[in-house]
Amino acid sequence: MKRIFRPLLAGAAAALLGFAALPALAEGKFGFVNTERIMRDSVPAQRAQKKIEGEFTKRDQELTRLAEQLKRMQEDLEKNSMTMAEAARRIKEREISELDRDFQRKRREFQEDLNQRRNEELAQVLEQANRAIRLIAEQEKYDIIFQDAVYANPRIELTDKVIKALEGKPPAR
Fold first, then answer.
1. Could you please report the per-residue DSSP string of 31-68?
2. What is the CATH number of the domain that holds 129?
3. Is residue 173 part of a domain?
4. Cβ(130)–Cβ(162) under 8 Å?
5. In this predicted structure, what is the pLDDT of residue 94?
6. pLDDT bracket for residue 149 (50, 70, 90)
7. 144 pairs with which residues across the strands?
8. Measured on CA atoms in the order 74, 78, 82, 86, is the torsion positive or negative?
């Protein structure tokens, strides 16, 4: 009988101790930040976006110009191919093919460079945001701050405080 009673007693004691820890866990201070909104709405993120746009505007315009030139050449070939000599048509097709290859290469390089620069800039913004989040957590004594939750009660939402901190404004309490 003692063999059965002792494990039951030990299990009941462990369960009671576990339940006793639940209120302590519930007393913790939790927060939530919406990283996507920070990366979209914060001043550093908007500054980074404008910087990237400024760096890549000229190349984007060049790609647009090349695409328009390629389209005009293809339309011209379609319109005049019946009246063109075979040799002239082949030369025109080769020119279009070379221009298309050049356009595709430049577009691919542009996209790769743009993505790399965007990732570099956004990494810096994310680093600043994480510093601001840590500072808010330490100053306001948060136990844990979550990012990107499925649902978060608006009273634990800290995104606006982080955005204000990134602007250099003191967060409202």
1. EEE-HHHHHHHSHHHHHHHHHHHHHHHHHHHHHHHHHH
2. 3.30.910.20
3. no
4. no
5. 96
6. confident
7. 30
8. positive
How far is 42 from 55, CA to CA, in rounded Å? Answer: 20
Pairing label, strands 144-147, 30-33: parallel
Number of domains in the chain: 1
What predicted TM-score, i.e. pTM, was given to this entire model? 0.68
172 in a domain, yes or no?
Answer: no
Q: What is the span of the domain harbouring residue 18?
A: 2-167
What are the CA-CA distances from residue 23 to residues 11, 12, 13, 145 (Å)? 20, 18, 17, 19
Assess if residue 64 is contained within a domain: yes
Q: What are residue 168's DSSP bridge partners?
A: none
In a domain, 52, yes or no: yes
Least confident of 13-17, 74-78, 128-132: 13-17
Q: What SS3 string covers 119-173? A: HHHHHHHHHHHHHHHHHHHHHCCCCEEEECCCCCCHHHECHHHHHHHHHCCCCCC
pLDDT digits (tens, 9 = 90+) for 33-85: 999 999 999 999 999 999 999 999 999 999 999 999 999 999 999 998 888 89
